[in-house]
Write a structure and sequence with these properties.
single chain, 378 residues, Heat Shock Protein 90, five-stranded mixed beta sheet, 5 strands
Length: 378
């Protein structure tokens, strides 16, 4: 309830309490007696007490005890009862101490029941005390509890919305990082192949030159197609073409592209391997980046790629026996192994790299296939 709505409710209630202090209809019949005075108080006293109670009504949310005290005095001296109901409601709705609520309610019940019982033989004291003192407290407690429950639910909804936005932002950031890694892998691998083919083209003649030029053209087209797909995902509102990400079945094609350059690459993939698409894609990208590094740093090396299963996950080993760097390939930015490590970490795997005694280099990784997080991404 906003300030205007509260004022629209409080003003009529305050006016009612002011009128109750001076108007006889609120001080007749069962409510004619007073425990303090046996005669009517002067009109000025009635008006002052009614005005005090009315002002206390406007402050009842912040100062419920002020309303309770003024209502008790107004009842005891004037015999006006509307302030009593409002005061008891404020006790139930605003006070948080159960002991204080019980104590104030007991005092008010005695103050109300005594003059009523004295004036009317005791028959109406208890029912009217309940109506004037206890029921308003219960109503105040109920409405206060209901408001708290609704406020907690609204806060929970807002908190869930904030957490959902954070999860969405985090997912978007992770997706963009994934796209950036894919773009790095695509560009470095394809461009490295194109540069190496162009180097071979310089010394080729006749039909062999035409074949190499055709390979360069095909590699360029594949690189452009993959880049268009990735860039399309980054564009706001763009409908990027949906197609399966490369996985274990595409390793043979990846190795064949390296063999076409004259590299000696052996591929061994255990039969019947099964893994989530996210793990398969990670294996493909790790092999792709590893072969790119071989093209750059061990051009004439013999390379082996092996993929297998240990029951709970996949293991991958890429090993070369050393070689010479390809001078025509532009140097990398030093992010290749870092990208591989990050990709393996995101699927819950581990990565190990080491220099071999014969001058070669070995990259080994293990990627779990039963991680719960992977099931969420599938």
């Amino acid at each position: 309830m906003g300030p205007r709505q509260r004022l629209a409710v409080d003003l009529p209630l305050a006016a009612l309490c002011v009128v109750a202090g001076v108007w006889d209809v609120f001080q007749s019949g069962l409510f004619a007696g007073s425990p303090l005075v046996d005669h009517r108080a002067p009109l000025a006293v009635n008006a002052a007490l009614g005005l005090l109670t009315g002002l206390a009504v406007l402050l009842r949310r912040d100062r419920p005890l002020l309303l309770w005290g003024s209502a008790l005095i107004c009842w005891a001296v004037v015999g006006a009862w509307p302030g009593t109901i409002l005061a008891q409601y404020a006790v139930g709705a605003q006070l948080r101490s159960a002991r204080l609520r019980i104590a104030l309610t007991a005092v008010m019940v005695i103050a109300v029941a005594w003059p009523i019982s004295r004036s009317n033989g005791g028959d109406a004291g208890a029912p009217l005390s309940i109506a004037l003192c206890i029921l308003p407290v219960l109503v105040g407690l109920y409405l206060s509890s209901r408001r708290e429950v609704l406020a907690n639910l609204e806060e929970r909804v807002r908190r869930n919305e904030r957490e959902e936005r954070l999860r969405i932002d985090q997912a978007r950031a992770e997706e963009r990082a994934q796209i950036a890694r894919d773009m790095h892998d695509v560009v470095t691998h394809r461009v490295a192949l194109m540069v190496l083919h162009a180097t071979a083209l310089e010394s080729a003649q006749g039909r062999n030159a035409v074949t190499i030029a055709g390979r360069i053209q095909g590699i360029g087209r594949e690189a452009l197609a993959e880049l268009r797909t990735l860039v399309g995902v980054l564009r706001d509102g763009a409908d990027a073409p949906l197609r399966p990400q490369p996985g274990l079945d595409d390793l043979a094609e990846l190795v064949a592209a390296s063999r076409a350059l004259g590299h000696t690459v052996e591929l061994s993939v255990e039969a019947g391997l099964s893994a989530p698409a996210l793990v398969q894609h990670a294996v493909y990208r790790v092999v792709q980046e590893a072969l790119t590094n071989v093209h750059k740093h061990a051009f004439d090396a013999r390379t082996t790629v092996a993929v297998g299963s240990d029951g709970d996950g996949l293991w991958l080993v890429v090993r070369d026996d050393g070689g010479t760097s390809a001078p025509s390939v532009a140097p990398g930015g030093g992010h290749g192994l870092l990208g591989i490590a990050e990709r393996v970490r995101l699927v819950g795997g581990t990565l190990d790299t080491r220099q071999l005694a014969d001058g070669g280099f070995e990259l080994s990784a293990r990627l779990p296939v039963t991680d719960p997080d992977l099931e969420v991404h599938r």
